[in-house]
Amino acid sequence: MQIENLDHLGLVAGMIDELGLVELTNEQIEPHCLEHVSAGQVVKAMILNALGFLSVPLYLFSEFFDSKAVSHLNDDRLGRVLNQLYEAGITPLLMKVALQAVQRFGINIEQCHLDSTSISVEGEYAWATVTKPKGSAEKDSREEPIPIEICRGYSRDHRPDLKQFLLTV
């Protein structure tokens, strides 16, 4: 028997398993017969790595797992999975994870709470026009894009001199 130290990451790994993140990721990305570690397992490893080995370049990814009970994790495999996630679309996967969390944990979704933050910006902003390419099936019209409204307001940074925009999620 060999004992491995997972520190706080054991709790995080347990929550990942409860959410079914590995399985959802594997549904999103088809496995290849030569892969020893599934895409879902790589995503789980990336989360554990991010929460336990911060500010380290990706090429040191596999070193984090030297003391853990895993193998076949390296920066090449990580890069392939990140590319596959991008190609498959990360938003649908995140939506599936959120819906599965709602179902598995019985989360009440009758109410929604939003969070917002203001981001201060400096400088002048040129307004560009949108042009359709020549030969396009659509008529060649020049339309003004709907701009982000940048204005002065309450500044949490105590910088009322800077313009800002509000990001709400």
Which characteristics define this entry?
single chain; 2 strands; mainly alpha; 6 helices; two-stranded antiparallel ribbon; 169 residues; elongated
What does this molecule look like?
- By secondary structure, this protein is mainly alpha-helical.
- It has six helices and two strands; from the N terminus they run ααααααββ.
- A two-stranded antiparallel ribbon has the order 1-2.
- The longest helix is centred in the middle third of the chain and has 16 residues, at 90-105.
- The mean pLDDT is 78.
Provide a quick synopsis of the model.
The chain has helices at residues 9-19, 21-28, 39-52, 61-64, 75-88, 90-105; strands spanning 116-121, 163-168. It has 169 residues and is mostly helical.
- How many H/I helices? 6
| Percent range for β-strand residues | 5-15%
Radius of gyration: 23 Å
Which sequence of strands runs across the widest sheet? 1-2
Number of strands: 2
* Secondary-structure content class: mainly alpha
- End-to-end separation in angstroms reads 47 Å
Order of helices and strands: HHHHHHEE
Largest sheet: 2 strands, antiparallel
Question: How would you describe the shape?
Answer: elongated
Low-confidence stretches: none
Provide mean pLDDT, rounded: 78
Share of residues in helices? 25-40%
